[in-house]
Write a structure and sequence with these properties.
Number of strands: 0
Distance between the termini: 66 Å
Structural class: mainly alpha
Amino acid sequence: SHAYNLVICGLCNEGRPYEGSKLLGDMLKNECKPNLAIYTTLIDSFFKVGDKENALKLLEQVQERGYKLDKFACSTVVNGLCKIGEVEQAWDFLERSQVLGLDVNAFSYSAIIDGLSKAGKIGEAEKVFKAMSERGCAGDVFCFNAIIDGFCKAAEMQKAMRILHWMEREGCEPTVYTYTILIDGHFKVRDLEGALKLWDEMIDKGISPNAVSFRTLSTGLCLSGNVSRACRILDELATMGVVPATAYADMIKVLCKAGRVKQACKLADGIIDRGREVPGKLRCAFINALRKAGKADLAFKMVHSRIGIGYNRS
RNA sequence: GCAACGAGCACGA
């Protein structure tokens, strides 16, 4: 039976719920009783391959067979429905589960809030958040992040910032996700100073930037013509020893894409001079960046130049 | 009984 569980999990994680449910059939035939976790895994997997029909069919079966859905199963269904755009139905399901006394937690609510935010229904997202709190379920970082994201995508930065301060007052610590969402939002409304302030705040709090957050920052800065600022921040990260793995390659990519090949060269030289990356690796990244930026001629030139890294300026 | 197994948030490509 454990063997079945492991294999079914494996199949589901590879996006093969059909083979998984065939095995589930075998289990039943052999009078093994699958546990709720297996059903949850399968339902999740069906949703992830976009097969709502089978996901819901399986859900029905679990309930018929007398399982009481737990918080994992509930949030899996809620999230599955939200991700395929059926937020309304997800909300109905959540409400019904709540009435049945099932375990509905912040995981479920965050999926709904996220779904509404992504659909641009920020007002409804706020309502759901309120309902959650009133029902005695405390919103966690995921819930706060989802609603902040909603405001950012709607370019309502002042409201987004208010949520940030609110969550902090509530003792919910922002994460690198929170800051990335907010920094991205500020860049999208061209508020560079606001974005930079948030970045500093994040660093001051000891939150390490990751590849995504740095890419958000460097892209925003480079595309708005503040390349040197981006380079300076990259330097600061280097001295602190928290440079995300793909930071250098990412920055070169944005610069090339923005047509600032010269700047990219300068950056590459600086990186190599300081011994912060293996020349061969950086060179390779540079060539790829040029290629993807539609500068095949320059890429070609670089492939055939044997000097340093970015020295064949044009 | 113990153990094993399941769920939600960000940029770009």
